[in-house]
Amino acid sequence: MEQVFQAKVSYGLLGFVTVVFFSPLTLTFDSNGLDWIFILIMMIVCTAYAFALCLFIGTRDSISSDKLFIKSSFILNQVIEVAEIREIKKIKIILSAPAPSLDRISIQHGKFDEVVISPRKKKEFVKALQRINPNIQVNLEDLENN
Which end of the chain is more exposed for a tag (fewer CB within 10 A), N or C? Predict the structure, then answer.
């Protein structure tokens, strides 16, 4: 049976991304032949924003039998053996990661591997992993609240 955990989305982070992408559109252009540049910039910005929005919306984690599947839209599909997970801890580092929120956890697995994710229901997520691998060390101070 597969358990799916949707990613937590930080609307502040989404707002920041929106401002960053659409701030070039605040530039004013004279009407002396630069309209096509403005249209080109708008097309690039809208495409990039749609891409970023897909990452925010399409990120989820799932656990099936003894594997953890991390999916971030069409960009990332990572599979981790739950038996190889050593530690789960809260992390506050802003890394490029399949985590559309700043409320993130780090999953350390294998010998030196790490992935940063942001499941909406951390407590249920961690318990599901610990049912498969009870040796996982957990260091989440506020686990009861999530």
Answer: N
CATH number for the domain running over 1-146: 2.30.29.30
Q: Are 117 and 61 in contact (CB under 8 A)?
A: yes
What tokens were used for 70? Answer: 């991390």
| Cα 63 from chain centre | 16
Distance between CA 51 and CA 39 in Å, rounded? 18
Is residue 69's pLDDT more than 90? yes
SS3 for 39-100 is HHHHHHHHHHHHHHHHHHHCEEEEEECCEEEEEECCCEEEEEEHHHEEEEEEECCCCCCCCC
pTM of the model: 0.73
> φ and ψ at 17, to 5 degrees?
-60, -40
Q: 133: which 2 tokens?
A: 């691998």
What distance in Å separates the CA atoms of residue 58 and residue 77, rounded to the nearest whole number?
Answer: 11
**Spans of all domains in the chain:** 1-146
> 117 forms bridges with which residues in the sheet?
105
- Residue pLDDT, tens place only, 119-138: 989 999 999 999 999 999 99
